[in-house]
């Protein structure tokens, strides 16, 4: 009788184990003798959406490198930065200023970046009377995480238009791009600054309620970096694989869906352009 009662519980345990393994562990087709490659994902979306978005890269790396790949993230940007510096990820996908910071702080190595430039949309409600950035004076501007480079670009924009956060404009950190968008649609903020790429991928039902007021300046987009302790042979193989994940090749479907354009190498010019944001990031991390 007791054995019969245990069957449902055992079934639920096995079902959970299989589901969790499918999210984080490589397919059984890969070489089980090789250590899994831990790939960090910047937590700018919910975990489920991150896994879904980057599954194509996971599958590609598994097949190309013939080794298991695990996708891992963190609960917030600050924790993610800490974990990258501490070496929790073998390679990781990260914000450009986080990449430049890790290169200088922990000698992490460049792999690749998306060729689309990164910029922010300043959005308002469709019927809002606000027609120019200067009209945000005295208003509330929603932003994603305080450490996000889009937040920093938004701050730069309002300062260039004669406003000082905390004095004649209120910046309200919503925690994520999607939350910042919802802050405007729900009337909790007068405007928001969010990633242009993320805004483009919002449902039409959401975008139809909003209007793009202006855009921020552009900087290099999301980057892939390698932990400084990774073996040279592995580093070279991973870098070669990622640079070959192009819109004209194995990354075709991925780039169509994400609108990140293509994959390219990270240049010195890319990193140099990010130094003002790295300086601000260091201040905020302290």
What does this structure look like?
With 286 residues, this protein is an alpha/beta fold. The protein folds into two domains: 23-117 and 220-285, Periplasmic binding protein-like II (D-Maltodextrin-Binding Protein, domain 2); 120-215, D-Maltodextrin-Binding Protein, domain 2 (3-Layer(aba) Sandwich). Helix content is 45%, strand content 17%. It contains twelve helices and eleven strands. It has helices at residues 2-24, 47-65, 77-85, 96-106, 149-160, 177-185, 196-200, 204-207, 232-243, 252-258, 268-273, 275-285; strands at 37-41, 69-72, 91-94, 109-114, 120-125, 140-143, 170-173, 191-195, 210-215, 223-226, 263-264. Helix 2 (47-65) links the parallel strand 1 (37-41) and strand 2. Helix 4 crosses helix 12. The longest helix has 23 residues, at 2-24. The protein is globular, with a radius of gyration of 21 Å. The termini are far apart. Mean pLDDT is 90; it is low at 1-30.
Question: Keywords, please?
Answer:
alpha/beta, D-Maltodextrin-Binding Protein, domain 2, 2 domains, 6-stranded mixed sheet, 45% helix
Number of strands: 11
Q: What string gives the helices and strands in order?
A: HEHEHEHEEEHEHEHHEEHHEHH
Radius of gyration of CA atoms, rounded to a whole number:
21 Å
What is the total number of structural domains? 2
With strands numbered from the N-terminus, the spatial order across the biggest sheet is 2-1-3-10-4-11
Average pLDDT value?
Answer: 90
Give the proportion of residues in helices: 40-55%
- Secondary-structure arrangement, i.e. CATH architecture of the largest domain: 3-Layer(aba) Sandwich
Number of helices: 12
Question: Which residues sit in consecutive blocks of at least 5 with pLDDT less than 50?
Answer: 1-30
What would CATH call the class of the largest domain? Alpha Beta
């Amino acid at each position: 009788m007791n054995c019969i009662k245990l069957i449902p519980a055992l079934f639920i345990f096995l079902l959970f184990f299989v589901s969790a393994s499918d999210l984080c562990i490589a397919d059984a087709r890969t070489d089980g003798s090789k250590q899994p490659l831990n790939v960090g994902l910047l937590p700018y979306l919910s975990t489920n959406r991150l896994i879904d978005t980057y599954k194509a890269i996971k599958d590609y790396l598994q097949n190309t490198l013939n080794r298991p790949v695990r996708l891992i993230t963190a609960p917030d940007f600050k924790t993610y930065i800490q974990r990258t510096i501490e070496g929790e990820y073998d390679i990781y996908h990260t914000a450009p200023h986080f990449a430049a910071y890790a290169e200088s702080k922990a000698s992490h190595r460049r792999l690749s970046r998306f060729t689309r430039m990164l910029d922010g949309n300043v959005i308002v409600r469709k019927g809002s009377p606000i027609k120019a950035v200067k009209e945000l004076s005295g208003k509330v501007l929603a932003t994603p995480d305080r450490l996000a480079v889009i937040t920093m670009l938004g701050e730069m924009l309002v300062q260039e238009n004669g406003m000082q956060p905390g004095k004649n404009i209120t910046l309200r950190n919503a925690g994520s791009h999607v939350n910042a968008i919802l802050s405007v649609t729900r009337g909790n903020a007068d405007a928001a600054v969010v990633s242009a790429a993320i805004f483009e991928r919002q449902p039409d039902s959401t975008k139809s309620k909003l209007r793009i007021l202006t855009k921020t300046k552009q900087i290099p987009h999301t980057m892939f970096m390698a932990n400084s302790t990774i073996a040279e042979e592995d580093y070279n193989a991973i870098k070669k694989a990622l640079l070959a994940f192009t819109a004209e090749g194995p990354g075709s479907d991925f780039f169509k869906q994400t609108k990140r354009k293509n994959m390219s190498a990270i240049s010195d010019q890319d990193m140099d352009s990010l130094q003002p944001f790295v300086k601000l990031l260091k201040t905020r991390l302290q």
